[in-house]
Write a structure and sequence with these properties.
- The chain is of the alpha+beta class.
- The two termini are 35 Å apart.
Length: 566
Protein backbone atom coordinates (compact mmCIF):
# COMPACT_ATOMS: atom_id res chain seq x y z
CA UNK A 1 0.00 0.00 0.00
CA UNK A 2 2.86 2.42 0.84
CA UNK A 3 4.53 1.57 -2.45
CA UNK A 4 1.34 2.38 -4.34
CA UNK A 5 0.98 5.66 -2.45
CA UNK A 6 4.58 6.59 -3.27
CA UNK A 7 4.06 5.88 -6.97
CA UNK A 8 0.86 7.91 -7.05
CA UNK A 9 2.55 10.79 -5.22
CA UNK A 10 5.45 10.87 -7.67
CA UNK A 11 3.07 10.70 -10.62
CA UNK A 12 1.02 13.57 -9.19
CA UNK A 13 4.13 15.70 -8.82
CA UNK A 14 5.15 14.96 -12.40
CA UNK A 15 1.73 15.76 -13.80
CA UNK A 16 1.42 18.95 -11.75
CA UNK A 17 4.99 20.03 -12.51
CA UNK A 18 4.55 23.70 -13.29
CA UNK A 19 6.75 23.92 -16.38
CA UNK A 20 3.43 23.37 -18.15
CA UNK A 21 2.12 26.64 -16.77
CA UNK A 22 5.08 28.86 -17.56
CA UNK A 23 6.33 30.27 -20.83
CA UNK A 24 9.44 28.91 -22.49
CA UNK A 25 12.58 29.81 -20.49
CA UNK A 26 14.31 32.92 -21.73
CA UNK A 27 18.03 33.02 -22.42
CA UNK A 28 18.40 35.17 -19.35
CA UNK A 29 16.89 32.36 -17.30
CA UNK A 30 19.85 30.06 -17.96
CA UNK A 31 21.76 29.08 -14.81
CA UNK A 32 24.55 31.49 -14.02
CA UNK A 33 28.07 30.34 -13.32
CA UNK A 34 27.92 31.87 -9.87
CA UNK A 35 24.49 30.37 -9.06
CA UNK A 36 24.29 28.69 -5.63
CA UNK A 37 25.21 25.03 -5.58
CA UNK A 38 22.53 22.74 -4.12
CA UNK A 39 23.26 20.96 -0.87
CA UNK A 40 24.44 17.40 -1.35
CA UNK A 41 25.18 16.32 2.23
CA UNK A 42 22.96 15.62 5.22
CA UNK A 43 19.75 13.59 5.59
CA UNK A 44 17.80 13.20 2.35
CA UNK A 45 14.63 11.79 3.93
CA UNK A 46 13.20 13.24 7.13
CA UNK A 47 10.17 12.22 9.20
CA UNK A 48 8.95 14.16 12.22
CA UNK A 49 6.18 13.14 14.61
CA UNK A 50 4.71 15.29 17.36
CA UNK A 51 5.93 14.81 20.91
CA UNK A 52 3.89 12.44 23.03
CA UNK A 53 2.44 15.40 24.95
CA UNK A 54 1.37 17.10 21.71
CA UNK A 55 -0.05 13.82 20.39
CA UNK A 56 -2.18 13.57 23.53
CA UNK A 57 -3.39 17.15 23.01
CA UNK A 58 -4.25 16.31 19.40
CA UNK A 59 -6.12 13.22 20.52
CA UNK A 60 -8.06 15.33 23.02
CA UNK A 61 -9.06 17.72 20.21
CA UNK A 62 -10.12 14.81 17.99
CA UNK A 63 -12.22 13.60 20.94
CA UNK A 64 -14.31 16.78 20.72
CA UNK A 65 -15.12 16.01 17.06
CA UNK A 66 -16.12 12.39 17.68
CA UNK A 67 -19.54 11.11 18.78
CA UNK A 68 -20.06 11.05 22.53
CA UNK A 69 -19.41 7.33 23.03
CA UNK A 70 -16.26 7.31 20.87
CA UNK A 71 -15.09 10.52 22.51
CA UNK A 72 -15.36 8.93 25.95
CA UNK A 73 -13.25 5.96 24.78
CA UNK A 74 -10.57 8.33 23.46
CA UNK A 75 -10.58 10.18 26.79
CA UNK A 76 -10.06 6.95 28.69
CA UNK A 77 -7.12 6.06 26.46
CA UNK A 78 -5.55 9.49 26.98
CA UNK A 79 -5.95 9.24 30.76
CA UNK A 80 -4.44 5.75 30.75
CA UNK A 81 -1.30 6.94 28.92
CA UNK A 82 -0.96 10.00 31.16
CA UNK A 83 -1.02 7.74 34.21
CA UNK A 84 2.27 6.12 33.06
CA UNK A 85 4.08 9.43 32.51
CA UNK A 86 6.56 10.51 35.19
CA UNK A 87 7.39 14.21 35.48
CA UNK A 88 11.15 13.53 35.39
CA UNK A 89 11.56 10.19 33.64
CA UNK A 90 8.78 10.61 31.09
CA UNK A 91 7.18 7.49 29.64
CA UNK A 92 9.48 4.55 30.42
CA UNK A 93 12.42 6.96 30.06
CA UNK A 94 11.16 8.54 26.82
CA UNK A 95 10.95 12.35 26.88
CA UNK A 96 7.31 13.26 26.21
CA UNK A 97 8.05 16.93 25.46
CA UNK A 98 10.21 16.50 22.34
CA UNK A 99 9.31 15.31 18.83
CA UNK A 100 10.06 11.83 17.52
CA UNK A 101 11.71 11.39 14.14
CA UNK A 102 13.61 9.40 11.57
CA UNK A 103 16.04 10.16 8.77
CA UNK A 104 17.92 8.57 5.89
CA UNK A 105 21.30 9.80 4.70
CA UNK A 106 22.23 8.30 1.35
CA UNK A 107 25.70 7.71 0.00
CA UNK A 108 26.40 7.48 -3.71
CA UNK A 109 26.96 3.71 -3.32
CA UNK A 110 23.64 3.15 -1.57
CA UNK A 111 22.56 -0.43 -0.95
CA UNK A 112 19.22 -2.25 -0.95
CA UNK A 113 18.58 -1.65 2.77
CA UNK A 114 17.98 2.08 3.37
CA UNK A 115 20.28 3.46 6.10
CA UNK A 116 17.36 4.61 8.24
CA UNK A 117 17.90 6.05 11.71
CA UNK A 118 15.05 6.54 14.18
CA UNK A 119 15.25 9.35 16.73
CA UNK A 120 13.60 8.81 20.11
CA UNK A 121 13.82 11.60 22.72
CA UNK A 122 15.23 10.36 26.01
CA UNK A 123 14.53 11.74 29.48
CA UNK A 124 16.41 9.01 31.37
CA UNK A 125 18.56 6.49 29.48
CA UNK A 126 18.85 4.07 32.42
CA UNK A 127 15.06 3.81 32.52
CA UNK A 128 15.00 3.18 28.76
CA UNK A 129 17.56 0.36 29.06
CA UNK A 130 15.65 -1.16 31.95
CA UNK A 131 12.37 -1.02 30.00
CA UNK A 132 13.97 -2.75 27.00
CA UNK A 133 15.15 -5.62 29.16
CA UNK A 134 12.27 -5.95 31.62
CA UNK A 135 9.27 -4.76 29.60
CA UNK A 136 10.25 -6.07 26.17
CA UNK A 137 12.47 -8.95 27.24
CA UNK A 138 15.36 -7.86 25.02
CA UNK A 139 19.00 -8.67 25.74
CA UNK A 140 21.00 -5.45 25.39
CA UNK A 141 24.75 -5.61 24.85
CA UNK A 142 27.07 -2.61 25.06
CA UNK A 143 29.65 -2.50 22.29
CA UNK A 144 32.57 -0.19 21.62
CA UNK A 145 32.27 3.56 21.11
CA UNK A 146 29.04 3.83 23.14
CA UNK A 147 26.91 1.71 20.78
CA UNK A 148 24.32 -0.73 22.15
CA UNK A 149 23.14 -3.85 20.33
CA UNK A 150 20.02 -5.98 20.68
CA UNK A 151 18.02 -8.47 18.63
CA UNK A 152 14.23 -8.76 18.43
CA UNK A 153 12.59 -12.04 17.43
CA UNK A 154 10.36 -10.31 14.86
CA UNK A 155 13.27 -8.54 13.09
CA UNK A 156 15.89 -10.59 11.20
CA UNK A 157 18.52 -7.83 11.60
CA UNK A 158 20.46 -6.70 14.64
CA UNK A 159 19.34 -3.39 16.16
CA UNK A 160 21.95 -0.80 17.12
CA UNK A 161 21.45 2.37 19.10
CA UNK A 162 23.40 5.05 20.93
CA UNK A 163 22.51 7.95 23.22
CA UNK A 164 23.48 11.48 22.15
CA UNK A 165 21.98 14.97 22.16
CA UNK A 166 19.22 13.81 24.58
CA UNK A 167 18.01 11.28 21.98
CA UNK A 168 18.42 7.61 21.19
CA UNK A 169 19.65 7.09 17.61
CA UNK A 170 18.34 3.67 16.49
CA UNK A 171 19.23 1.78 13.31
CA UNK A 172 19.38 -1.76 11.95
CA UNK A 173 21.99 -3.94 10.31
CA UNK A 174 24.91 -1.49 10.32
CA UNK A 175 26.14 0.48 13.33
CA UNK A 176 28.03 2.81 10.95
CA UNK A 177 24.67 4.50 10.31
CA UNK A 178 24.94 6.03 13.79
CA UNK A 179 28.63 6.83 13.80
CA UNK A 180 29.23 9.45 16.51
CA UNK A 181 31.05 11.75 14.08
CA UNK A 182 28.16 11.99 11.62
CA UNK A 183 25.12 12.34 13.91
CA UNK A 184 22.92 15.31 13.01
CA UNK A 185 21.48 17.30 15.88
CA UNK A 186 17.73 16.64 16.34
CA UNK A 187 17.12 20.37 16.87
CA UNK A 188 18.49 21.00 13.36
CA UNK A 189 16.46 18.40 11.47
CA UNK A 190 13.27 17.89 13.51
CA UNK A 191 11.97 21.37 12.78
CA UNK A 192 8.27 22.00 12.38
CA UNK A 193 5.22 23.56 13.93
CA UNK A 194 3.48 22.06 16.99
CA UNK A 195 0.31 21.44 14.94
CA UNK A 196 2.16 19.15 12.49
CA UNK A 197 1.14 15.69 13.67
CA UNK A 198 3.50 14.13 11.17
CA UNK A 199 5.67 15.54 8.43
CA UNK A 200 7.68 13.60 5.89
CA UNK A 201 10.08 15.33 3.54
CA UNK A 202 12.51 14.34 0.82
CA UNK A 203 15.46 16.61 0.15
CA UNK A 204 15.60 16.09 -3.60
CA UNK A 205 18.91 17.95 -3.84
CA UNK A 206 20.46 15.35 -1.49
CA UNK A 207 19.36 12.24 -3.37
CA UNK A 208 22.19 10.26 -5.01
CA UNK A 209 22.66 11.04 -8.70
CA UNK A 210 22.50 7.33 -9.46
CA UNK A 211 19.04 7.13 -7.87
CA UNK A 212 17.83 10.13 -9.89
CA UNK A 213 19.10 8.59 -13.13
CA UNK A 214 17.37 5.31 -12.28
CA UNK A 215 14.06 7.15 -11.74
CA UNK A 216 14.36 9.05 -15.04
CA UNK A 217 15.33 5.89 -16.94
CA UNK A 218 12.37 3.96 -15.50
CA UNK A 219 9.93 6.70 -16.54
CA UNK A 220 11.51 7.03 -20.00
CA UNK A 221 11.20 3.27 -20.57
CA UNK A 222 7.52 3.26 -19.61
CA UNK A 223 6.75 6.33 -21.71
CA UNK A 224 8.64 4.92 -24.69
CA UNK A 225 5.93 2.25 -24.90
CA UNK A 226 3.30 5.02 -24.99
CA UNK A 227 5.13 6.64 -27.90
CA UNK A 228 5.07 3.38 -29.83
CA UNK A 229 1.36 2.79 -29.18
CA UNK A 230 -0.52 3.38 -32.47
CA UNK A 231 -3.27 5.99 -32.90
CA UNK A 232 -5.55 4.58 -35.63
CA UNK A 233 -6.54 7.13 -38.29
CA UNK A 234 -4.77 9.89 -36.37
CA UNK A 235 -3.25 12.72 -38.43
CA UNK A 236 0.53 13.11 -38.34
CA UNK A 237 0.27 16.34 -36.33
CA UNK A 238 -1.63 14.56 -33.53
CA UNK A 239 0.98 11.80 -33.32
CA UNK A 240 3.74 14.42 -33.12
CA UNK A 241 1.74 16.26 -30.46
CA UNK A 242 1.41 13.07 -28.40
CA UNK A 243 5.15 12.39 -28.65
CA UNK A 244 5.95 15.96 -27.64
CA UNK A 245 3.58 15.73 -24.65
CA UNK A 246 5.43 12.59 -23.50
CA UNK A 247 8.73 14.43 -23.87
CA UNK A 248 7.29 17.22 -21.71
CA UNK A 249 6.45 14.71 -18.97
CA UNK A 250 10.03 13.45 -18.97
CA UNK A 251 11.32 17.02 -18.91
CA UNK A 252 9.07 17.79 -15.93
CA UNK A 253 10.51 14.84 -14.05
CA UNK A 254 14.03 15.98 -14.86
CA UNK A 255 13.17 19.49 -13.68
CA UNK A 256 11.95 18.07 -10.38
CA UNK A 257 15.00 15.87 -9.83
CA UNK A 258 17.59 18.37 -11.08
CA UNK A 259 16.02 21.60 -9.81
CA UNK A 260 13.96 20.36 -6.88
CA UNK A 261 15.05 21.18 -3.35
CA UNK A 262 12.46 19.53 -1.13
CA UNK A 263 9.14 17.70 -1.35
CA UNK A 264 7.14 17.25 1.83
CA UNK A 265 3.90 15.75 3.06
CA UNK A 266 2.28 17.27 6.15
CA UNK A 267 -0.64 16.21 8.31
CA UNK A 268 -1.70 19.18 10.42
CA UNK A 269 -4.22 19.36 13.24
CA UNK A 270 -4.59 22.84 14.71
CA UNK A 271 -7.04 23.00 17.63
CA UNK A 272 -6.66 26.80 17.89
CA UNK A 273 -7.78 27.33 14.29
CA UNK A 274 -10.11 24.32 14.44
CA UNK A 275 -8.54 22.91 11.26
CA UNK A 276 -7.33 19.58 9.93
CA UNK A 277 -5.20 19.62 6.79
CA UNK A 278 -3.14 17.37 4.53
CA UNK A 279 -0.56 19.24 2.49
CA UNK A 280 1.86 18.18 -0.22
CA UNK A 281 4.52 20.80 -0.92
CA UNK A 282 7.48 21.07 -3.29
CA UNK A 283 10.22 23.70 -3.49
CA UNK A 284 12.79 24.32 -6.18
CA UNK A 285 16.39 25.20 -5.48
CA UNK A 286 17.19 28.90 -5.68
CA UNK A 287 17.60 30.20 -9.25
CA UNK A 288 16.47 26.86 -10.76
CA UNK A 289 13.97 26.80 -13.63
CA UNK A 290 11.63 24.76 -11.42
CA UNK A 291 11.59 27.50 -8.76
CA UNK A 292 10.82 30.11 -11.43
CA UNK A 293 8.03 27.99 -12.90
CA UNK A 294 6.43 27.47 -9.49
CA UNK A 295 6.59 31.19 -8.78
CA UNK A 296 5.02 31.98 -12.17
CA UNK A 297 1.79 30.20 -11.15
CA UNK A 298 0.86 33.18 -8.99
CA UNK A 299 1.36 35.52 -11.97
CA UNK A 300 -1.39 33.82 -14.00
CA UNK A 301 -4.71 35.23 -12.85
CA UNK A 302 -7.97 33.40 -13.50
CA UNK A 303 -10.67 35.25 -15.42
CA UNK A 304 -13.31 32.76 -14.27
CA UNK A 305 -12.00 32.75 -10.70
CA UNK A 306 -12.81 36.43 -10.41
CA UNK A 307 -16.30 35.92 -11.83
CA UNK A 308 -17.11 33.17 -9.31
CA UNK A 309 -15.98 35.15 -6.26
CA UNK A 310 -19.22 35.54 -4.29
CA UNK A 311 -19.24 35.70 -0.47
CA UNK A 312 -22.37 33.55 -0.12
CA UNK A 313 -21.12 30.64 -2.21
CA UNK A 314 -22.13 27.19 -1.02
CA UNK A 315 -19.89 25.34 -3.46
CA UNK A 316 -17.35 26.47 -6.04
CA UNK A 317 -14.82 24.79 -8.32
CA UNK A 318 -12.25 26.60 -10.44
CA UNK A 319 -9.55 25.10 -12.69
CA UNK A 320 -6.93 27.23 -14.43
CA UNK A 321 -4.15 25.49 -16.38
CA UNK A 322 -2.23 25.91 -19.62
CA UNK A 323 -0.30 23.70 -21.97
CA UNK A 324 3.47 24.03 -22.14
CA UNK A 325 4.61 26.69 -24.61
CA UNK A 326 5.99 24.06 -27.00
CA UNK A 327 2.64 22.24 -27.09
CA UNK A 328 0.71 25.48 -27.56
CA UNK A 329 2.65 26.10 -30.78
CA UNK A 330 1.64 22.70 -32.11
CA UNK A 331 -2.00 22.77 -30.99
CA UNK A 332 -3.57 24.91 -33.80
CA UNK A 333 -2.52 22.47 -36.54
CA UNK A 334 -3.60 19.50 -34.41
CA UNK A 335 -7.07 21.02 -34.01
CA UNK A 336 -7.38 21.81 -37.72
CA UNK A 337 -6.21 18.34 -38.78
CA UNK A 338 -8.43 16.59 -36.23
CA UNK A 339 -11.44 18.56 -37.50
CA UNK A 340 -10.69 17.63 -41.11
CA UNK A 341 -10.22 13.99 -40.16
CA UNK A 342 -13.55 13.97 -38.33
CA UNK A 343 -15.26 15.33 -41.46
CA UNK A 344 -13.57 12.71 -43.67
CA UNK A 345 -14.64 9.85 -41.42
CA UNK A 346 -18.19 11.14 -41.24
CA UNK A 347 -18.05 11.74 -37.52
CA UNK A 348 -19.62 15.13 -38.25
CA UNK A 349 -22.35 14.79 -40.92
CA UNK A 350 -21.86 17.31 -43.72
CA UNK A 351 -25.21 19.07 -43.31
CA UNK A 352 -24.71 19.51 -39.57
CA UNK A 353 -21.17 20.83 -40.07
CA UNK A 354 -22.36 23.32 -42.66
CA UNK A 355 -25.00 24.66 -40.29
CA UNK A 356 -22.63 24.83 -37.33
CA UNK A 357 -19.61 26.07 -39.28
CA UNK A 358 -19.89 29.76 -38.19
CA UNK A 359 -20.10 28.69 -34.54
CA UNK A 360 -17.23 26.17 -34.90
CA UNK A 361 -15.02 28.81 -36.52
CA UNK A 362 -15.83 31.25 -33.70
CA UNK A 363 -14.89 28.65 -31.06
CA UNK A 364 -11.63 27.52 -32.71
CA UNK A 365 -9.44 30.38 -31.35
CA UNK A 366 -10.45 29.38 -27.81
CA UNK A 367 -9.64 25.71 -28.42
CA UNK A 368 -6.33 26.54 -30.12
CA UNK A 369 -5.18 28.85 -27.32
CA UNK A 370 -4.20 25.89 -25.13
CA UNK A 371 -5.60 27.45 -21.95
CA UNK A 372 -8.23 25.93 -19.68
CA UNK A 373 -9.88 28.35 -17.27
CA UNK A 374 -13.34 27.30 -16.16
CA UNK A 375 -15.45 26.90 -13.07
CA UNK A 376 -18.85 26.59 -11.49
CA UNK A 377 -20.37 28.03 -8.33
CA UNK A 378 -23.54 27.34 -6.38
CA UNK A 379 -24.62 30.57 -4.70
CA UNK A 380 -27.11 30.73 -1.85
CA UNK A 381 -29.38 29.49 -0.49
CA UNK A 382 -31.99 32.25 -0.59
CA UNK A 383 -34.95 32.54 1.79
CA UNK A 384 -36.69 29.72 -0.10
CA UNK A 385 -33.66 27.44 0.21
CA UNK A 386 -32.99 27.72 -3.53
CA UNK A 387 -29.60 28.23 -5.19
CA UNK A 388 -28.32 30.09 -8.21
CA UNK A 389 -25.86 28.13 -10.34
CA UNK A 390 -23.17 30.11 -12.17
CA UNK A 391 -20.74 28.60 -14.67
CA UNK A 392 -17.99 30.32 -16.60
CA UNK A 393 -15.30 29.60 -19.17
CA UNK A 394 -12.52 31.79 -20.48
CA UNK A 395 -12.79 32.36 -24.24
CA UNK A 396 -11.00 34.14 -27.06
CA UNK A 397 -13.04 36.67 -29.06
CA UNK A 398 -16.14 36.15 -26.94
CA UNK A 399 -18.15 38.77 -28.81
CA UNK A 400 -17.58 36.88 -32.08
CA UNK A 401 -18.79 33.70 -30.37
CA UNK A 402 -21.87 35.59 -29.21
CA UNK A 403 -22.65 36.73 -32.78
CA UNK A 404 -22.11 33.20 -34.09
CA UNK A 405 -24.50 31.80 -31.46
CA UNK A 406 -27.15 34.35 -32.40
CA UNK A 407 -26.73 33.61 -36.10
CA UNK A 408 -26.97 29.85 -35.52
CA UNK A 409 -30.11 30.23 -33.40
CA UNK A 410 -31.82 32.49 -35.95
CA UNK A 411 -30.89 30.61 -39.13
CA UNK A 412 -30.16 26.98 -38.34
CA UNK A 413 -32.19 25.77 -35.37
CA UNK A 414 -35.65 24.23 -35.83
CA UNK A 415 -38.43 26.70 -34.93
CA UNK A 416 -39.54 24.72 -31.87
CA UNK A 417 -36.01 25.02 -30.42
CA UNK A 418 -35.23 28.52 -31.66
CA UNK A 419 -38.41 29.77 -29.98
CA UNK A 420 -36.92 28.83 -26.61
CA UNK A 421 -34.22 31.48 -27.10
CA UNK A 422 -34.87 35.11 -26.28
CA UNK A 423 -31.82 36.80 -27.74
CA UNK A 424 -30.79 40.20 -26.38
CA UNK A 425 -33.41 39.74 -23.67
CA UNK A 426 -31.99 42.44 -21.42
CA UNK A 427 -29.12 44.92 -21.33
CA UNK A 428 -27.04 44.75 -18.17
CA UNK A 429 -25.49 47.73 -16.41
CA UNK A 430 -22.10 47.30 -18.15
CA UNK A 431 -23.70 47.23 -21.59
CA UNK A 432 -23.55 43.45 -22.03
CA UNK A 433 -26.63 41.76 -23.45
CA UNK A 434 -28.22 38.91 -21.50
CA UNK A 435 -29.73 36.10 -23.56
CA UNK A 436 -32.40 33.84 -22.09
CA UNK A 437 -33.24 30.21 -22.78
CA UNK A 438 -36.74 29.44 -21.56
CA UNK A 439 -36.22 26.19 -19.64
CA UNK A 440 -38.45 26.73 -16.60
CA UNK A 441 -41.21 24.47 -17.93
CA UNK A 442 -38.74 21.66 -18.66
CA UNK A 443 -36.99 21.47 -15.28
CA UNK A 444 -37.46 18.12 -13.51
CA UNK A 445 -38.41 17.74 -9.86
CA UNK A 446 -34.87 17.14 -8.53
CA UNK A 447 -33.43 20.15 -10.33
CA UNK A 448 -36.36 22.30 -9.19
CA UNK A 449 -35.44 21.57 -5.56
CA UNK A 450 -32.08 23.22 -6.23
CA UNK A 451 -32.80 26.17 -8.56
CA UNK A 452 -36.58 26.42 -8.56
CA UNK A 453 -38.57 27.08 -11.75
CA UNK A 454 -35.93 29.11 -13.53
CA UNK A 455 -34.80 30.00 -17.03
CA UNK A 456 -31.19 29.82 -18.22
CA UNK A 457 -29.35 33.10 -18.88
CA UNK A 458 -26.17 33.66 -20.92
CA UNK A 459 -23.79 36.63 -21.06
CA UNK A 460 -20.66 37.12 -23.16
CA UNK A 461 -17.61 39.23 -22.55
CA UNK A 462 -14.72 39.26 -25.00
CA UNK A 463 -12.70 36.98 -22.67
CA UNK A 464 -15.51 35.25 -20.80
CA UNK A 465 -18.74 33.32 -21.29
CA UNK A 466 -21.11 33.07 -18.31
CA UNK A 467 -24.19 30.91 -17.81
CA UNK A 468 -26.54 31.19 -14.83
CA UNK A 469 -29.77 29.61 -13.68
CA UNK A 470 -31.67 30.15 -10.46
CA UNK A 471 -33.73 32.76 -8.60
CA UNK A 472 -30.95 35.39 -8.58
CA UNK A 473 -29.39 34.67 -11.98
CA UNK A 474 -29.69 38.24 -13.29
CA UNK A 475 -28.12 39.81 -10.18
CA UNK A 476 -25.32 37.24 -10.20
CA UNK A 477 -24.54 37.79 -13.89
CA UNK A 478 -24.60 41.59 -13.47
CA UNK A 479 -21.84 41.33 -10.88
CA UNK A 480 -19.88 38.51 -12.51
CA UNK A 481 -19.62 40.16 -15.93
CA UNK A 482 -17.83 43.19 -14.41
CA UNK A 483 -15.39 41.11 -12.36
CA UNK A 484 -11.61 41.24 -12.59
CA UNK A 485 -9.24 38.23 -12.81
CA UNK A 486 -8.37 36.65 -9.48
CA UNK A 487 -5.53 34.56 -8.10
CA UNK A 488 -6.92 31.06 -7.58
CA UNK A 489 -3.82 29.03 -8.40
CA UNK A 490 -4.28 25.92 -10.50
CA UNK A 491 -7.29 24.42 -8.76
CA UNK A 492 -9.60 25.59 -6.02
CA UNK A 493 -12.57 23.73 -4.60
CA UNK A 494 -14.64 25.11 -1.72
CA UNK A 495 -17.64 23.56 0.00
CA UNK A 496 -19.69 25.21 2.74
CA UNK A 497 -21.52 22.34 4.44
CA UNK A 498 -23.94 24.53 6.38
CA UNK A 499 -25.09 26.19 3.15
CA UNK A 500 -25.68 22.98 1.17
CA UNK A 501 -27.81 21.38 3.89
CA UNK A 502 -31.06 22.26 1.99
CA UNK A 503 -30.10 19.73 -0.73
CA UNK A 504 -28.77 17.02 1.60
CA UNK A 505 -31.56 14.51 1.28
CA UNK A 506 -33.62 12.62 -1.25
CA UNK A 507 -36.75 12.87 0.89
CA UNK A 508 -38.26 14.97 3.68
CA UNK A 509 -36.99 12.66 6.45
CA UNK A 510 -33.36 12.81 5.25
CA UNK A 511 -33.54 16.57 4.79
CA UNK A 512 -35.01 17.05 8.26
CA UNK A 513 -32.27 14.89 9.75
CA UNK A 514 -29.51 16.87 7.95
CA UNK A 515 -30.94 20.17 9.21
CA UNK A 516 -31.14 18.80 12.75
CA UNK A 517 -27.51 17.67 12.72
CA UNK A 518 -26.39 20.98 11.16
CA UNK A 519 -28.16 22.99 13.87
CA UNK A 520 -26.55 20.82 16.54
CA UNK A 521 -23.03 21.25 15.15
CA UNK A 522 -23.09 24.73 13.59
CA UNK A 523 -25.82 26.39 15.64
CA UNK A 524 -29.02 28.06 14.43
CA UNK A 525 -27.24 30.90 12.66
CA UNK A 526 -24.89 28.63 10.77
CA UNK A 527 -21.14 28.86 11.09
CA UNK A 528 -18.06 30.02 9.22
CA UNK A 529 -16.29 26.90 10.49
CA UNK A 530 -18.09 24.64 8.00
CA UNK A 531 -15.68 24.71 5.07
CA UNK A 532 -13.79 22.01 3.22
CA UNK A 533 -11.20 23.27 0.71
CA UNK A 534 -8.91 21.67 -1.85
CA UNK A 535 -6.33 23.82 -3.59
CA UNK A 536 -3.30 23.57 -5.87
CA UNK A 537 -1.23 26.75 -5.81
CA UNK A 538 2.23 28.14 -6.47
CA UNK A 539 4.45 30.98 -5.29
CA UNK A 540 7.46 30.20 -3.11
CA UNK A 541 6.46 26.54 -3.35
CA UNK A 542 3.98 24.28 -5.13
CA UNK A 543 1.25 23.31 -2.66
CA UNK A 544 -1.52 20.75 -2.91
CA UNK A 545 -3.67 21.19 0.18
CA UNK A 546 -6.84 19.59 1.50
CA UNK A 547 -8.23 21.46 4.51
CA UNK A 548 -11.32 20.85 6.60
CA UNK A 549 -12.65 22.79 9.54
CA UNK A 550 -13.10 20.71 12.66
CA UNK A 551 -16.84 21.30 12.83
CA UNK A 552 -17.15 20.27 9.17
CA UNK A 553 -15.60 16.90 10.06
CA UNK A 554 -17.83 16.62 13.12
CA UNK A 555 -20.91 17.34 10.99
CA UNK A 556 -20.04 14.68 8.39
CA UNK A 557 -19.34 12.08 11.11
CA UNK A 558 -22.57 12.76 13.00
CA UNK A 559 -24.62 12.94 9.80
CA UNK A 560 -23.26 9.58 8.66
CA UNK A 561 -24.01 7.95 12.03
CA UNK A 562 -27.50 9.43 12.19
CA UNK A 563 -28.32 8.15 8.69
CA UNK A 564 -27.03 4.72 9.64
CA UNK A 565 -29.21 4.68 12.75
CA UNK A 566 -32.27 5.76 10.76
Amino acid sequence: MLCRFFKLSVLALILFAPSSWADEPKKSDAPKKDAPVAATSGPAVLIRVQSINDLLKTADYVRTLAPEEAGEQIKQGIDAIKAFIDDKKGLEGIDVTKPIGAYITFKEDFGETPPIVILIPVADKDTVLKALEERLGLKVEKEKDGVFKTQADQIPFPIYFRFANDYAYVTINDSANIDAKSLPKPADILVGKPEHIISASVRIDRLPEALKKMAIAAVENNLAEAKEAPLPNAPKSLIEFKDKAIDELVMNLKNILEGGEEASLLLNVDPKKDEVAIELEMKGTKSSQLAKDIKSIRDNKSVVGGALAFPDTALSLNVSVSLAASLKKMLPKVVDDALEEAKKQGLIPGDIFDKAEPLIKALLPTVKAGNLDLGIAMIGPDKSDKFTLLAGVKVVDGKKIEEAVKETVKKELPPEIADLFKLDAEKLSDGSMMHTVKLADFIDEKTEKIVGKSDLHIVFRDDLMLVAIGPNAKEVLTKAVTSKPADVGVLQLKVSLARIVPIMGDNAAELSNAKKVAEKVFGKGGSKADEIRLSVDGGDSLKIKLLAKGKAIQFLVELGLSQKDN
